Amino acid sequence: MNFSYTEIIGYIASFTVLISFLMKNIKTLRIINTIGCSFFVAYGILLNNSIPIIFTNTAIIGINVYYLSKMKNKLD
Q1: What is the pTM of this model?
Q2: Where on the phi/psi map is residue 2: left (φ > 0), alpha (ψ -120 to 50), or beta?
Q3: SS3 letters for 13-57?
Q4: How far apart are the C-alpha atoms of 16 and 63, rounded to whole Å?
Q5: What is the rounded distance in angstroms from the CA atom of residue 9 to the CA atom of residue 14?
Q6: What is the pLDDT of residue 76?
Q7: Which of 38, 40, 61, 74 is spaced 20 to 30 Å from 18 by Cα?
């Protein structure tokens, strides 16, 4: 099987987001999900700037960062 660089990034993104939902700890879930969404943003860019993929995953990254910062502020 021959996979393109773009397909490999897409598979990594999908796998990482999927794995994130197996996490019991919400902080770990959000961190891993953010990594997966970052790969999806890269994938969207590699697909000649697929705006729906880039926009949705950028928004999810923002949501994850927001809640992670709220968690951090509760600990401080």
Answers
A1: 0.92
A2: beta
A3: HHHHHHHHCCCCCHHHHHHHHHHHHHHHHHHHHHCCCCHHHHHHH
A4: 17
A5: 9
A6: 65
A7: 74
Structure tokens at 37: 């969404």
Euclidean distance between CA atoms 45 and 39, whole angstroms: 10
Q: Which two tokens stand for residue 63?
A: 């949501």
How far apart CA 9 and CA 25 sit, in angstroms, is 26
Indicate the burial class of 72 (C-beta count within 10 angstroms; 0-12, 13-18, 19 or more). exposed
Asked if 34 contacts 64 with a C-beta cutoff of 8 angstroms, the reply is yes
**pLDDT, mean of each 10-residue run, the chain (76 residues):** 94 98 97 98 97 98 97 80
> Which of 70, 46, 71 lies closest to 57, judged by CA?
46
